[in-house]
C-alpha cells in the first residue's frame, strides 16, 4: 500500500509515517515509480508504535522493543531487552515524578509563606 493509504488506515499523518521510517521503526520499499510501498503488516506496526509512544517511550526505545511486540495493543514478549528497557524507563519516570513533587512542594511553600 502507498503511504497515503497507510495514513488513512492508521490515522497517522504521512509526515509522521516518514519520520517513523527515518527512525527505523517502519520499513518500506520503493516501487518502480519511486513511491514508498508498505506491506499489510505496516498497519499493525504503526498501531504498536502509537501505543508505545502513548506509554511515554521514545522512538529510540521503541526501536529496541518492536521486535518483541505482537498484536496492535501491543503485547510484549518479556525478552531480556524489553525487561531492561521497561525497568530503565520506570526508574527515569520515578526520578521525574520525585523532581516534580519537590518543585510542587517549593511552589506550595510560597503560598503558605504568603498567607
Structure description:
The chain has 115 residues and is mainly alpha-helical. Helix content is 63%, strand content 7%. It has a two-stranded antiparallel sheet. Strands 3-4 form a two-stranded antiparallel ribbon. A hairpin with a 5-residue loop joins strand 1 (29-30) and strand 2 (36-37). The chain is elongated and about 70 Å long. The model has no long low-confidence stretch (mean pLDDT 92).
Concise synopsis of the structure shown:
This protein is mainly alpha-helical and 115 residues long. It is built from five helices and four strands; from the N terminus they run ααββααββα.
Strand content: 5-15%
Q: What's the story with the biggest beta sheet?
A: 2 strands, antiparallel
Quickly give the structural class. Answer: mainly alpha
Number of helices: 5
Low-pLDDT sequence parts: none
Q: Tell me, what's the shape?
A: elongated
Helix content: 55-70%
Placed side by side, the strands forming the largest sheet appear as 1-2
- Span from first to last CA? 64 Å
Order of helices and strands: HHEEHHEEH
- Please give the number of β-strands: 4
Radius of gyration: 20 Å
Mean pLDDT: 92
Pfam families: MerR_1
Protein name: DNA-binding transcriptional MerR regulator
Keywords: DNA-binding
Domain HTH merR-type: 1-68
Amino acid at each position: 500500500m502507498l503511504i497515503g493509504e497507510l495514513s488513512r488506515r492508521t490515522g497517522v499523518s504521512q509526515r509522521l509515517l516518514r519520520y517513523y521510517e527515518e527512525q527505523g521503526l517502519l520499513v518500506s520499499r520503493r516501487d518502480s515509480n519511486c513511491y514508498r510501498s508498505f506491506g499489510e503488516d505496516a498497519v499493525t506496526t504503526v498501531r504498536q508504535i502509537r501505543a508505545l509512544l502513548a506509554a511515554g517511550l521514545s522512538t529510540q526505545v521503541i526501536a529496541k522493543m518492536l521486535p518483541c511486540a505482537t498484536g496492535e495493543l501491543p503485547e510484549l514478549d518479556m525478552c531480556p531487552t524489553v525487561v531492561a528497557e521497561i525497568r530503565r524507563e520506570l526508574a527515569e519516570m520515578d526520578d521525574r515524578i520525585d523532581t516534580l513533587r519537590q518543585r510542587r512542594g517549593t511552589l506550595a511553600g510560597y503560598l503558605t509563606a504568603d498567607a
